[in-house]
TrEMBL record:
Function field: Small GTPase required for proper nuclear import of RNA polymerase II and III (RNAPII and RNAPIII). May act at an RNAP assembly step prior to nuclear import.
Source organism per UniProt: Dryoscopus gambensis
Family statement drawn from the similarity comment of this UniProt entry: Belongs to the GPN-loop GTPase family.
Matching SUPFAM superfamilies: P-loop containing nucleoside triphosphate hydrolases (SSF52540)
Gene from which this protein is expressed: Gpn3
Name this polypeptide is given: GPN-loop GTPase 3
One function term, GO molecular function aspect: GTPase activity
Keywords: GTP-binding, Hydrolase, Nucleotide-binding
Quaternary data: Binds to RNA polymerase II (RNAPII).
Lineage: Eukaryota, Metazoa, Chordata, Craniata, Vertebrata
Length: 235
């Protein structure tokens, strides 16, 4: 660990401070804003990081990426320090096995992409925890046909307004191909390597070495996804 933000400030300390009296969410926001006002601490903690590969484990609260400028400020500061920044948006695959939840996950990913304005890799995590049935069900969400998903979603909706809104959202996602997910199974080394290759390609890590494109290119993506599920659903 190069830097631990708890050396600068802790949520528990903020919540226990009688003059602040914040709850969990308010305490987190206060800590992140305090952090944004003390980027010099981060710069000193990172030290000389030329050619180093630094992973920032960020809080999962979506409001930090949609309502507040803190994470955007962090990205801009890192870019000023000449970091090549890539966002990795993680969504629990167990949450994404229904069309409504999948659309919600896509909107959350889009919110982060729009807010941070950086290249972003979207990942479905914990694939190893899914049941065989869920693995088969979630396969269609990795390379989704949004128009068929519209039918799955709108048949449940009674409100014409919500049907129209859902169709617009699904159409936008499908027409522009704005969000796609990679499966991550921590028990499968190949799955981990595919995600890592995409991240490395995005930031052009080690560009002075031989140029490599990510193994899972768009043209053979569906074949690799099929191979992944063929190997794992039968287990």
């Amino acid at each position: 660990v190069v830097a631990d933000i708890r050396e600068l400030i802790e949520v528990d300390d903020v919540m226990e401070d009688d003059s602040l009296r914040f709850g969990p969410n308010g305490g987190l926001v206060f800590c992140m804003e305090y952090f944004a006002n003390n980027f010099s601490w981060l710069e000193e903690s990172l030290g000389h990081v030329e050619d180093d590969y630094v992973l920032f484990d960020c809080p999962g609260q979506i409001e930090l990426y949609t309502h507040l400028p803190v994470m955007k400020q962090l990205v801009e500061q890192l870019q000023q320090w000449e970091f090549r920044v890539c966002g990795v948006f993680l969504v629990d695959s167990q949450f994404m096995v229904e069309s409504f939840k999948f659309i919600s996950g896509i909107l959350a990913a889009l919110s982060a992409m729009i807010s941070l304005e950086i290249p972003q890799i979207n990942v479905m995590t914990k694939m190893d925890l899914l049941s065989k049935k869920a693995k088969k069900e979630i396969e269609k969400y990795l390379d989704p046909d949004m128009y068929s998903m519209i039918e799955d979603s709108t048949n449940i909706l009674r409100s014409k307004r919500f049907k129209k809104l859902t169709k617009s959202i699904c159409g936008l996602i499908d027409d522009y191909g704005m969000v796609r997910f990679l499966p991550l199974d921590r028990s499968d080394e190949e799955s981990i390597n595919i995600v890592l290759q995409h991240i490395d390609f995005t930031i052009q890590y080690g560009e002075d070495l031989e140029f490599k494109e990510p193994k899972e290119c768009e043209e053979d993506k569906s074949a690799l996804v099929d191979e992944y599920f063929q190997d794992h659903v039968d287990e």
